[in-house]
Amino acid sequence: MTAMIRPTTSTHSARFRDLLAAEWIKLWSLRSTWAAFALILLAMVGLAVHAALATHAGWPDWPAEQRAARSPLWDAFPTEAQMFVVLAASGVGAVAIGGEYASGLMRTTFAAVPRRSAVAAAKLTVLTGVLTLLGALGAAAAFAVSQAILADVGANMSVGDPGALRGITASALLVPLCALVGMALAALIRHTAPAIVTAATVLLLVPTAVDEDERWSALLRHAMPLPAWQRLMEPTGPPAWLDNPYPATVTGAWTTYAAWAAVATLITVTALSRRHP
Amino acid sequence: MTGSVNGMIELDGLTRRYGRTTAVDDLTLTVRPGRVTGFLGPNGAGKSTTLRMVLGLTTPTSGTATVDGVRFRERARGLRHAGALLDAADVHGGRSARAHLASLARSNGIGAARVDEVLGQVGLDDAAGRRVGGFSLGMRQRLGIAAALLGDPPVLMFDEPFNGLDPEGVRWVRGLFRRLATEGRTVFVSSHLMGEVEHCADYLVVIGRGRLIAEESLDEFAARVGRAEVVVRSPEPAILTTALADAGASVRPDPAGALTVTGVSAERIGELALGLRIPLHELSPRTASLEEAFMALTAADVEYAARESR
Q1: Is A109 an interface residue toward B (CB < 8 Å)?
Q2: Is A11 in CB contact (< 8 Å) with chain B?
Q3: Which of A64, A223, B70, B103 is buried deepest, with most CB atoms within 10 A?
Q4: What is the pLDDT of residue A2?
């Protein structure tokens, strides 16, 4: 006679919290995560310092109009820094899902947790949570350091000034937003490198090919994350010299953020649940 | 569905098609607890696809696969119901063995102490902190087995677990499978080589081209397919051959002078020789190996056969 082995089905064995912890372990046990996080922080803070120092050096010689046209936010969050952020953050997202598919680990994961939508939700929660914190940390540090440098010549702004908090928040949230886009593309493509290339193309290259001359192309451009971020970096609206017939709005920019995040989340959950690992 | 016994894997009309190819064709069978069931078939017979469907990783085109009477996709967590080693490569090479198991364990609410326990069980304690990317195939197989054991499940499935193992590893794995079965678990082990499972399996399921070819105990299989031959050596092969042919045997001489005789028993051959006063230098009964029998059984269903070169 053989003893019967019964599965221990305690109610607490299916806690979502455990899935979050499992994804947390997965995230931190990869070296590429650490490298990408370091790159994001270094780029945000380092390039803010670089930009602020350049302004600091030139400021005494700048004519009044140039001083007036310049927002201190642009030194806190220079576009070069966001290029790195977009690449690194979308890369982290792509690796989190693409690496799991490409290695075959996704099969092991889904055999252990057959409820795939729960796995997807845990991955999304952990990654966006961690990257939101990282983005907030980087944005706050970049703002503080750059404004401290600019204060020396009186060219700084404070958090309380109009548009300052909005600029910090938009720069912070760009990090998890790009990670979500990376995850969604990796969930569709299921290979890390092509997902990273596609993410860079969609997030960085496509906006450069779309101008704002026509109503439809302006709308298309405003519906993309990086132009939306740029709009949120303009405390007093688009600069007057641009003379844009179809200007972007702040509400529109936030809507773009929200829509991309929602669609990316939906794609990730659906692709993970439906397709064979 | 009839009441399902704990720990049973049940396939009912299980079918999976990929385009015009049918990988698994109307497979109906039950894998029972308390014994090691060998799942045999040539490469491409549909073994891996079947195991993936049991685990809910591949959706059947038709039919069902259940563990404990429940389709695996309906489980919230899997490790306590079934543990599986599908492919030793299904890990991320950038993580340490311990981190890999820790995240799996945690996802199923299994304590961290269990991770060290299974690492010890498979002999990977010393390599626990090393990145899996640097592991040999044998070490990865052990890691995969450790992952299967994590949830202490009543059902265990192993797809080609002997690949990459050294002889010591093979012996250890066979012993492990026997022990798991003795503990009352269902142990389902796929292989394309009879020799790998004949020393640990009690029961066999043989498939070819996705279809069930045989389902019986190892003993029944051996009795059914084992072709008895007798090798005879004598200084008077010509006389003996005539006498054996008269007795209804078929005789095949080999260049070394020995006769391979089928159709009569060794006892009968001995009596015949005594009657003719012919000395015998050898009289050895031989059973065709199970491997040969298995090859003969599945020959028609081999998907990728090497053609003889001309």
Answers
A1: yes
A2: no
A3: B103
A4: 43
Does B71 share its domain with B197?
yes
Residues of B in contact with A21 (CB under 8 A): 106-107
The minimal CB distance from B57 to the residues A4, A10, A277 is found for: A277
Q: Tell me, what's the ipTM?
A: 0.88
Note whether B164 and B60 are same-domain residues.
yes
Task: Write the residue in B78, B93, B183 that is nearest to A112 by C-beta.
Answer: B78
| DSSP symbol at B74 | G
Full DSSP string of B174-237: HHHHHHHHHTT-EEEEEES-HHHHTTT-SEEEEEETTEEEEEEEHHHHHHHHPPEEEEEE-S-H
Residues 79-98 of B with CB under 8 A from A: 79-82, 84, 86-87, 89-96
- Which of B57, B59, B77 lies nearest to residue A107, judging by beta carbons? B57
Sequence-separated (6 or more) residues with CB below 8 Å from residue B56: A110, A111, A114, B71, B72, B73, B75
For chain B, the domain total comes to 2
- pLDDT tens, residue by residue, B200-222: 899 999 999 999 998 999 888 87
- Mutation pick from B35, B91, B106, B188 vs chain A, by most beta carbons of A within 10 Å, is B106
Which of B77, B102, B154 shows the shortest C-beta gap to A25? B102
Q: Taking CB atoms and an 8 Å limit, are B184 and A104 in contact across chains?
A: no
Tell me, yes or no, if A13 comes closer than 8 A to chain B by beta carbon.
yes
Instruction: Average the pLDDT over B74-83 and give the result.
Output: 96
Q: Count contacts between A and B (CB, < 8 Å).
A: 142
Number of domains comprising chain A? 1
What is residue A210's DSSP assignment? -
**Beta carbons of B109 and A13 less than 8 Å apart:** yes
Residue ending a domain, choose from B196, B217, B238:
B217
Do B268 and B160 share a structural domain?
no
**A131-A132-A137-A140 Cα dihedral, nearest 10 degrees:** 140
pLDDT band at B302 (very low <50, low <70, confident <90, very high): low
**Confidence band of B310 (pLDDT split at 50, 70, 90):** very low
Q: With 60 as the cut, is the pLDDT of residue B231 above it?
A: yes
- Domain around B118: 9-217
- The DSSP-derived string for A48-64 is HHHHHHHHHHHGGG--H
Give the model confidence (pLDDT) of B92-136 as tens digits.
999 999 999 999 999 999 999 999 999 999 999 999 999 999 999
Same domain, B197 and B283: no
% of chain B at pLDDT higher than 70 = 94
Q: Mean per-residue pLDDT for A184-211?
A: 93
pLDDT tens-place string over residues A65-124: 888 888 999 999 999 999 999 999 999 999 999 999 999 999 999 999 999 999 999 999
Shared domain check, B242 and B147: no
* CB-CB under 8 Å, B185 with A29: no
Contact B232, B280 (CB under 8 A): yes
How many residues are present in chain A? 277
